[in-house]
Amino acid sequence: MRRRAAVMAGPGPGSVPLVRFAVPGECVAVLPAGSGGTPGVGMLLRRGNLFDHLTVARNVVLAGRLAGRPLRAADDLLELVGLAGRGGDYPGTLSALESARAGVAVVLAGAPERVLADEPAGELDGLAALELMDLLCAVAARGTAVVVATRDPEIAAAAHRVVRVA
């Protein structure tokens, strides 16, 4: 099993550059959220990176094309994130958790080495937030570094290790 880590940082924009140090296979939470990014990182935003006028599957396909990556079948990615059979649906018909799961599929379509998730559970209730964190940790277990920027200590607690940065 791959290790997951939580990094709890003080206020300010200094925490997100830590993404450079994320190890493939780790799931890291950064507290509180900073700003910025690093090239080669897939970005998962709070609203799931979805275009409302495209079906979920078309969102996944478009993300892969824009990233210039060989595209895994959208259906395979949707199955991986727990949305098998929902590819023909539009984002407006999804629950908040399903939308977040679809956002993970969109990010993975670009085959990133690292995923930076900026408050991905910000609009979810407690149980749904933990389900999303479980999914992100499963992504990490498959070999992708996952960094979760969050202010929620329960999300960070899903990690095996917490590192505090002043």
Tell me what you see in this structure:
The protein has 166 residues and is of the alpha/beta class. The chain has 5 helices and 6 strands; from the N terminus they run E-E-E-H-H-H-E-H-E-H-E. It has helices spanning 56-67, 74-80, 96-109, 126-141, 153-156; strands spanning 5-9, 27-31, 41-44, 114-118, 145-149, 161-165. A 6-stranded parallel beta sheet has the order 3-4-5-2-1-6. It is globular and about 35 Å long. The two termini are 29 Å apart. Mean pLDDT is 77; it is low at 12-18 and 31-39.
What is the helix content? 25-40%
User: Mean pLDDT across all residues, rounded?
Assistant: 77
Tally of DSSP helical segments? 5
Structural class: alpha/beta
* Overall body shape: globular
The low-confidence runs, each spanning 5 or more residues with pLDDT under 50, are: 12-18, 31-39
Largest sheet at a glance? 6 strands, parallel
Strand-residue fraction?
15-25%
Number of strands: 6
Largest sheet, order of strands side by side? Answer: 3-4-5-2-1-6
Secondary-structure element series: EEEHHHEHEHE
Radius of gyration: 15 Å
Distance between the terminal alpha carbons, to the nearest Å? 29 Å
